[in-house]
Amino acid sequence: MRHPRALAAVVATATATILAAQSLAAPALAAEPALAAPGAPMRNMPEQAPPTLTISTGDRLRVPPEVFAMICTQGPNGTVRMPDGTSQRVMLTASHCVNTVPGNPPIKNEFMAPVGTRYVRLGERVASNYMKPEAMYLQDPMEAIRTADWGIVRLDDNVTATNLSQSRDWNGRSHGEPVRLTTIKDYRTLAPGEVSTDNFGEPICKDGATSGRSCATQIGRTRNGVYSWNLGYQHGDSGGVNFDPRDGSIIGVSSMTLGPLGKTQPADRIIEDAYGVPDGHVNEVFTVTDSAAPHANFTTAGEEADRLDKAVTELNPDFTPPVPREELRKAVGNAQADGARLADKAMRGQFDRAEVEQAVDHHAEQISFWGGAVLGQEVNKLLS
Asked: What is the Cα–Cα distance from 262 to 24, expressed in whole angstroms?
């Protein structure tokens, strides 16, 4: 059970989060809009996009290549001083945002931002760590917790960058003013397997290109993870900046979520691992971009989805989109019929464990998918 004083600290910091973030808000200055912008969307295309996509109903549809784009959020950017005296302008992000996800088409080493109907190049990957598939897909939660999740994109010379963190959610809404990022929060590096609660009760905010900005409370950290409760990561928020709203210091980049538990990949560990920087010296090597340029007019996730839906409809004029509620009814009916069939076989001594397990997995997946689609429709009705 938490100590009452510790609980009071959590409540106090959570209550003060929004006010603190507003106090760090920086007005957008008259400058060239920034394409490298923390909290903005980031995309990556496959080397060879498949011409078709098979959906959950079994229909095969012709689709534009953008359907297979890797959907992530831009992390913090700045300049790294290299050992030979040169410097690199880079963006910090998540490993699974810059590497091919197992089972998906190989991706190009080229990262872009959606602006209007175009995808404008940001730069290319120069470093990342390796994530095992079981960690990337959360099949082994403990492996996911232990594994680092970082990547570095070198920004092209012609790309304007900003230190203002801001995001718009799926529907284009902003939740708070731009926040000026300052330095990287340089924690004491923990030993493998070590757990610390020295950050317990401290506030954390994230900017994500799907869910927008949200704030929560930190509960602990490991060597390659800062953990929070109910920060609300969603698909497409990965790689986005996480910061301390009290001073704009960069905590890390959005990595993964297990229910209400969120994991941030610490930014200091990214610099330490990628460039061999000793603990405590990260800000001597990495300097946050010194520019308060406003964000470019990025395409929101919802606008992009609507455009791609329209393109798919035009490519498949004879296709009738499935109705989620009707598909859910079919999925439940199919599960009941299959259950009765398997029960009858078992009564006749023909029980096959592998067949039963396969059927359970299939029907659970179908019911979960279409149930989620129905729920999503209802939520959108409430929000619209």
From this structure: 24
* Residue 177 reports pLDDT greater than 90: yes
Residue corresponding to tokens 């809404």: 173
Domain segments of the chain: what residues? 4-312, 323-383
Q: Up-side HSE of residue 354: CA atoms within 13 Å toward CB?
A: 0
Both tokens assigned to 186: 């340089």
Which residues, in sequence order, are bridge partners of residue 268?
none
d(CA 324, CA 372): 9
**Tokens read off for 194:** 């070590």
Phi then psi dihedrals of residue 27, to 5 deg: -65, 145
pLDDT given for residue 120 in this prediction: 97
Cβ-count burial of 19 within 10 angstroms (0-12 exposed, 13-18 middle, 19+ buried)?
A: exposed
Beta bridge partners of 155: 123
Over the Cα atoms of the chain, what is R_g? 23
Instruction: Grade residue 369 by pLDDT with cuts at 50, 70 and 90.
Output: confident
Residue 60 pLDDT greater than 80, yes or no: yes
What residue type is 14 in one-letter code?
A
Cβ-proximal residues to 280 (8 Å cutoff; 6+ apart), any chain = 186, 188
